[in-house]
Every structure is written in C-alpha cells, then in structure tokens.
Design brief:
The structure is a single chain. The two termini are 18 Å apart. The protein folds into 3 domains: 55 residues, Structural Genomics Hypothetical 15.5 Kd Protein In mrcA-pckA Intergenic Region, Chain A; 90 residues, Pseudouridine synthase (2-Layer Sandwich); 79 residues, Pseudouridine synthase. Strands 7, 8, 9, 10, 13, 14, 15, 16 and 17 form a 9-stranded mixed sheet that branches. It is α+β, with helices and mostly antiparallel strands.
Length: 259
C-alpha cells in the first residue's frame, strides 16, 4: 500500500503538491468514492480524475525530461475555461503517463518550461527547500534607480508575503528598451512582474531564460521542444537525492492475482 499522493505522482499524473491540491478540491475518486489526502492505495483500484479513469501502469515509467519554449499567448493548464491554447498541445505524446509541468509561466510570459513524466522529479525541482534558481530577462518601462535595485534585492512585502530578487544584472539598453536579468529561487504567481510593479516600474516583456542548470538555447524557437539525454536525467536524479526508477518495479508485479 502507498499514499495516494506518492502513487499518482510516481505514475506521472502530477507532482505530489499538485495531486494534494486535486484531492483537496475533491477531483480524485477511488472506486467511486471521493479520495482524501493520505489515503492508502495498492494500484489495483479504479482511480478517476475529474470523472476520467486514470490508466495505471504496472511498469515503472522510464524518466523523460524535455524543455519547451513557451510563446506568449499559451496557458499552462489543461482545462482553460476560456478555451485558450495550452502548452500541452505542442508536446509529443507519451505511451503511458502524462506530462507534468515543472513550474508555470503566465499567459504573457514566454520562455523556458520543463516537463517530465515523473511527478517526484517535478516536485523536487519546484520545492522551495531545494532553492532552484529561475532566471528571467526583463524589459522594463520606467526609470530604475539604485535605490529601487537595493529595495528589490532586500525584499518587498507583497500580498502573499516578503519577496525579493537574489540577483539583478543590468542587461543594457536605453529608455523603454532597458533590460535586466533577475534571479530568484521561488515561483509564486506573477512574482517577477509584481516585484517590479511594487517599485513603480512596468514590465513590458518577460522571458524565462534559465531554470536550475537548464538554459534556453537561442536555436530553440517558440512552440518547439527538445528532449534531454538519459545520462543527464540520471545525474539530475542523483543530485536531487532521488532513486532513478528501474525498468520494472517488482513490488507491483503480481498485484491483483488471486491466490
């Protein structure tokens, strides 16, 4: 038996944090009953998300990781009530499991997004305790002073708590075309834009150019993706203190057999 959050994350449904939010919202059911955080399951149950059956793989999914260059205008959700184009429509298909986004970008932000079929990997790369760096290229409209930069690096109280940039690098330019590169270690909703707005500066363009060790290459055009090699993914698992999944999970063999 295994906690439902861990099991579904392992199956590539979403990260543990995302699965927990789904459970809190009553979106997941097990054998027709609404599931709760912490429920124990074996994997033989009939599990549904938003009324749709989740196909359970009895073989561990081979870890996959890809980078996607998100264009402005796409949303990072599978079920947008306004029917806007979502990032998942441009991703390659998976034989089993599904793509889990590692963080999000708002509709007006472009740049690097990472996707994996392993919820645990996504969870580690998003969890605040691992302090994963995110770097953005920001074009601002308005005069930026040394005092503003100092304030942004020391911290500003936003409606959801204290926030700050770990580093601000002047990228050059003049007037309304002045660029900065900013680095921070969390991914709150619209955090980069809200920080600049808090000092009276408008962000006119925002692109994520790096997430952790992964840089957005200039040759990767908007709407395109690239896969990462197995060796790189294996080293990433090691650095994040995760066990790299074997080809076959023997613990799950024989489930459901009558004795």
């Amino acid at each position: 038996m295994e906690r439902i959050q861990k099991f579904l994350a392992h199956q590539g449904v979403a990260s543990r944090r995302q699965v927990d939010a789904m459970l809190q919202a009553g979106r997941i059911s097990v054998n027709g009953e609404v599931a709760k955080p912490g429920d124990q399951i074996s994997g033989n149950e009939k599990i549904s998300l938003d009324g749709k059956i989740i196909r359970i793989s009895q073989v561990d999914l081979k870890p996959k990781l890809l980078m996607y260059h998100k264009p402005v205008g796409e949303v990072c959700t599978r079920a947008d009530p306004e029917g806007r184009t979502d990032v998942f429509k441009n991703l390659p298909g998976l034989g089993s499991g599904r793509w889990v986004s590692i963080g999000r970008l708002d509709i007006n932000t472009s740049g690097l997004l990472l996707f994996t079929n392993q919820g645990e990997l996504a969870n580690r790369l998003m969890h605040p305790s691992f302090e994963v760096e995110r770097e953005y290229a920001v074009r601002v409209h308005g005069t930026v002073t040394a005092d503003m930069i100092k304030q942004l690096e020391l911290g500003i109280h936003l409606e959801d708590g204290l926030a700050r940039f770990d580093q601000i690098i002047d990228g050059g330019g003049e007037g309304t075309n002045h660029w900065y590169h900013v680095i921070l270690k969390e991914g709150r909703n619209r955090e980069v834009r809200r920080l600049w707005e808090a000092v009276g500066v408008e962000v006119s363009r925002l692109t994520r150019v790096r997430y952790d060790q992964f840089n957005l290459p200039k040759w990767l055009k908007p709407g395109k993706h690239r896969f990462f090699e197995e060796d790189l993914i294996s080293k990433l698992y090691q650095r994040l203190q995760l066990d790299y999944p074997e080809a076959q999970d023997n613990r799950r063999q024989g489930r459901g057999r009558k004795r």
